[in-house]
Amino acid sequence: MPQRYGAIAQAGHWLTLLLIVGAFALGWIMGDMKMSPTRLKLFSYHKWIGVTVFGIAVLRILWRQWAKAPPLPPAMPAWERIGAHLSHWGLYALLLAIPLSGWLMSSAKGFQTVYLGQFPIPDLIGRDRELGKLLEEVHELLTTILLFVVGLHAAAALKHHYHDKDDVLTRMLPRWRNNGAAR
């Protein structure tokens, strides 16, 4: 079993983080904007990122079934092992549920998603204003939960690196090489 995550898993992890930060920033900015062409454009970008995150999450889950995660440190207590597994699968669930809730919300509000401005994605449900408002609240709640779990995930990685002094954090970082020697 590998002792580090491979390049594909690392790329998926860090790309997902960048996309989440971008989607959250756009959501935050456009939430306070008055309706305008700029706001509509930001909504489109936000939705495109969400569709991309959903697709990458599906690929990451499939990849993880094939390329298993490296083992956790042997000294890690059972409660931390359980927490690590629950938080990872919770993150995957949120990476699927949040874009799905956004897609449902857009459908209910009558705004079809057209990925990258070229590829129409069919609405999942019919137009329903009240359901759209409810789904907006669900979308925002799930995003808040995601931010909390990502923060917990990052704090745990830093705790392992600086307090436990194990390789939990570094196994998700790329190895930089100089003339074949690892730094």
From TrEMBL:
Alphabetic keyword roster: Cell membrane, Electron transport, Heme, Iron, Membrane, Metal-binding, Transmembrane, Transmembrane helix, Transport
Topology relative to the membrane: Multi-pass membrane protein
Cellular compartment(s): Cell membrane
Superkingdom field: Bacteria
InterPro entries on file: Cyt_b561_bac/Ni-Hgenase, Cytochrome_b561_oxidase, Di-haem_cyt_TM
Any single GO CC term annotated in Swiss-Prot or TrEMBL for this entry: plasma membrane
Residue ranges of every copy of the Cytochrome b561 bacterial/Ni-hydrogenase domain listed in the record: 4-174
GO BP annotations, alphabetical order: respiratory electron transport chain
Cofactor: heme b
Pfam families xrefs: Ni_hydr_CYTB
Name assigned to this protein: Cytochrome b
GO molecular function: electron transfer activity; heme binding; metal ion binding
Protein transport keyword on record: no
Transmembrane segments: 12-31, 43-63, 84-105, 141-158
Keyword Signal in record: no
UniProt family annotation: Belongs to the cytochrome b561 family.
Main location, first listed in the record: membrane
